[in-house]
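Sequence in, structure out. Go.
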Amino acid sequence: MPFLLGLPPFALRNASLYLFIIMGLAFLAAYLLGTRQFVYLMPAATLLAFGVGLLLPTWYPPMDRTLAGLMRLGTQAAGFVIVWTLARDRWRLLLPAGVLTVVALTEGVGKMAVLTPAAEPYLVPVLLIGVGAYLLKN
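Output:
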């Protein structure tokens, strides 16, 4: 990943956010080129979904900024569902996907704040710790 150091000089906006996508692609390559172990698929989906969720508002600037949180949570939920479609025996992945979908729709469509501004910075660490604990358990 040393080539990431070259992203800022190329005037790439939000270059640091692409780190999540590049790490996700590395896990995806390990999954596709290896023995297709689940331990590579879950981090690939989580990191790719998170990276896309962060970058989506920057890729489409006219988008309403209030939808950024909805996009971030929605892409995470989609990541869990995609992993479930590839590994049908992992039905527990639908539980966080459902919770993230309900929170995203409640905040985006219902205009109700489920996550307080003080709790939002803890969403990503809690999500990544949860995925890591799930992988360690299985």
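Check: DSSP finds five helices and no strands in the chain. The helical segments are 18-33, 38-59, 68-86, 94-108, 123-137.
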